[in-house]
UniProtKB/TrEMBL annotation:
This is Neurturin. GO terms for cellular component: extracellular region. One of its GO terms (biological process) is glial cell-derived neurotrophic factor receptor signaling pathway. One of its GO terms (molecular function) is receptor tyrosine kinase binding. Growth factor that supports the survival of sympathetic neurons in culture. May regulate the development and maintenance of the CNS. Involved in the development of the neural crest. Might control the size of non-neuronal cell population such as haemopoietic cells. Acts by binding to its coreceptor, GFRA2, leading to autophosphorylation and activation of the RET receptor. Heparan sulfate-binding is required for signaling. Pfam families: TGF_beta (PF00019). Residues 9-32 have a biased composition (Low complexity). Keywords: Disulfide bond, Growth factor, Secreted, Signal. Residues 1-39 are annotated as: Disordered. Belongs to the TGF-beta family. GDNF subfamily. It comes from Herpetotheres cachinnans. CDD domains: TGF_beta_Neurturin (cd19383). Residues 91-196 form the TGF-beta family profile domain.
Length: 196
């Protein structure tokens, strides 16, 4: 975008340079500011503010025109996200990772870790459902969301999108607790997952 040869010293105040700058714009010519030392705890806005103060008016115009050009290229190519920053690709990857489809996952845990109030060192294979259900949105979900946004449904607790939940459960799980008592827990581990 810019040449790498930027200098942060004031411009020379020769008569020819002041005439050239005054003829190109109606604003009075201002010397370049040296960059300010950014404090660690200063806000992002003040960091950008001090950065932009070190640019001349022509450089800011060049920056804005380059951003507008990138924006128009992104819109003409059908892009949904503006490729203004180099980290945009990693944002898309994180967004895709958040939208994994509903699936069955498993984890080996002790019975005590299940949070059911049993004290036991025995381990079980706990299967659970994880993921999103964006592809399973039905007309019901869209209508319910619309009714909630229009405040037609106010007090009821309703969910306006499908949720990744177990459709079936594994067999019952039996174990001995720390006091040698035998327990059986039903519907503990998922067998099949789906969007409900």
């Amino acid at each position: 975008m810019f040449n790498g040869s930027r200098k942060y010293s004031p411009l020379p105040s020769s008569p020819s340079s002041s005439r050239a700058s005054s003829s190109s714009s109606s604003l009075p010519a201002a010397p370049r500011r040296s960059p300010r030392a950014l404090q660690r705890h200063s806000s992002l806005l003040s960091q950008y503010s001090s950065l932009l103060e070190s640019y001349t008016e022509g450089e800011i115009r060049q920056l804005i025109s380059a951003l507008v050009e990138r924006y128009s290229q992104a819109m003409n190519s059908g892009g949904h996200e503006l490729p203004l920053f180099p980290r945009a690709g990693s944002r898309r990857k994180r967004a895709r990772a958040r939208h994994k489809p509903c699936a069955l996952k498993e984890l080996e845990v002790s019975v005590s870790e299940l949070g059911l109030g049993y004290e036991s060192d025995e381990t079980v294979l706990f299967r659970y459902c994880s993921g999103t259900c964006e592809a399973a949105v039905r007309s019901y979900d869209l209508s319910l969301k619309s009714m909630r946004s229009r405040r037609r449904i106010k007090k009821e607790k309703v969910r306006a999108r499908p949720c990744c939940r177990p459709l079936a459960y594994d067999d019952d799980v039996s174990f001995l607790d720390a006091y040698n008592r035998y327990y059986t827990v039903n519907e503990l581990s998922a067998k099949e997952c789906g969007c409900v």
